Amino acid sequence: MNKHLLSAVFTVAAFSFCLCPAQSQEQAADYPIQQVKLNRVELTDSFWLPKIRTIQEKTLRYAFEKCTAEGRLENFVTAGNVIRGGTGKTRGAMPFDDTDVYKTIEGAACSLINAPNPALDNYLDSIIKIIAYGQENQRLQYV
To answer: Under a CB-based contact definition with an 8 Å cutoff, are residues 111 and 41 in contact?
Structure first.
């Protein structure tokens, strides 16, 4: 995985981790500081706001472009074709390349909470359809 893609995936994963925390009711009752729901947060500062806007406007697009260019989305289509009786080999050196797609989707979904973007929302829907087409296939050979 090249340095820029790794950086983009890490940034998106960190973004989604920071913005989508999970905390059980038991933890919440025992801890004096409570999380704030993301949809109730409005950033107006000069430090975090520009970084989050960069993630939303540039990093997510770059991460999705790399997933496409490196065949990660194409691999789901290949998997779907194999399920339906076709044959095919996937692209990429790692059999777990699909995790980059999932983490990028997670970061994008979290970004939509405070920054609705119909184009991004529609794009995510199209990627989810591609994933659904290719899921649950174990018979692929990686080249």
So the answer is: no
* Cβ–Cβ < 8 Å for 132, 73: no
Question: Tokens standing for 140?
Answer: 């692929």
**Amino acid letter for position 63:** A
Domain encompassing residue 15: 3-142
CA distance 10 to 12: 6
Measured distance CA(63)–CA(12) in Å, rounded: 8
For the entire predicted model, the pTM comes to 0.68
- Angle made by CA atoms 106, 69, 124, in degrees to the nearest 5: 30
In total, how many domains does the chain have?
1
What are the residues facing 141 on neighbouring strands?
A: 89
Model confidence pLDDT, tens digit, residues 73-119: 998 888 888 766 667 788 887 777 889 999 999 999 998 988 889 99
